[in-house]
Amino acid sequence: MSDYEPGDVLIVRFPFQEDTTKMKIRPALLLSVDDDTYTVCRITKTNRSGTNKGEWIHSNTMVGRELGLNCDSFIDLDTIRRIKASYIIHDKSPIGEYREFDKLLSKYDLEF
After folding, report:
1. What is the pLDDT of residues 14-52, one digit of tens each?
2. Is the pLDDT of residue 1 over 70?
3. Selecting from 2.30.30.520, 2.30.30.110, 3.40.1110.10, 3.40.640.10, what CATH number does the domain 8-107 have?
4. What is the CB neighbour count within 10 angstroms for residue 58?
5. CB burial string 67-98: b at 16+ within 10 A, e below
6. Model-level pTM?
């Protein structure tokens, strides 16, 4: 049973697409949970607005503070991975929450 809910922001070991044995520790938005498998999308400092599906968030806004991020960030819905629970760095609680989660998925007609 997961302690996490879709919309939570987690710190994870995020696998590279080219070589899934290589990973980068980064924040990720939890999209869904299925037993011990988590579907997440990366959160990056690079603004990919206009090229990737997602949302640019300013860290000094209410939403930015709720996400728990320390810099302006892009929630990248084009870069999604399925990871194991062992890839999550913070064991007990998410670093933040994206309250606009359902709205974001609706905007791009996505379901998880």
Report:
1. 999 888 889 999 999 999 999 889 999 999 999 999 999
2. no
3. 2.30.30.110
4. 13
5. bbbeeebbbbbebbbebeeebbeeeeebebbb
6. 0.93
